[in-house]
Amino acid sequence: MLRFILCIFYVGLFLTSAPLRAEQSVVPAPFVAPLMQWVAVRMSVPVTSLPAVYVSRERMVAKIGDPMRQSALARALYVPGEVVIDDQFWDASDTRTVSFLVHELVHHAQLTSGRSYSCHNAKEWEAYKMQNMWLAEHGLPPAVEDKWIARMADCNLPTIVQRLH
Questions:
Q1: Do residues 143 and 131 lie in contact, with contact meaning Cβ atoms separated by under 8 Å?
Q2: How far is 60 from 73, CA to CA, in rounded Å?
């Protein structure tokens, strides 16, 4: 019995003394606004609002659902009005990491511009092309190859979300 009580004590001590990790943080609007402007100019669309940008793995899992599906692969996602970035991935000082935010901001511009697209894959095509453009302007190689982007833009293919499930 004493061994059981000591075990419970040590588990409780471990749980209460572990550093608390912030559930989520918000990327400030002054950081997001120039990126959104970059996207709007290159897409030639007006964007009158910024999405909320959260850095939180937990929020990603909550938005996606089953953590064993897409969230295992996703670094960021867009749902209307908000971008969620994996906190284990996010580094605001890393241009490659910021390119994933640019990708999701393209989705925000697509939604708010009212543009129509032939299929969901066409939206992803544009977002990846813009992400690669961002990287090229910063002297970095593309996130994905043009050959892959062209193949995945086929509207007869299942959407990215369907393929990852």
A1: yes
A2: 11
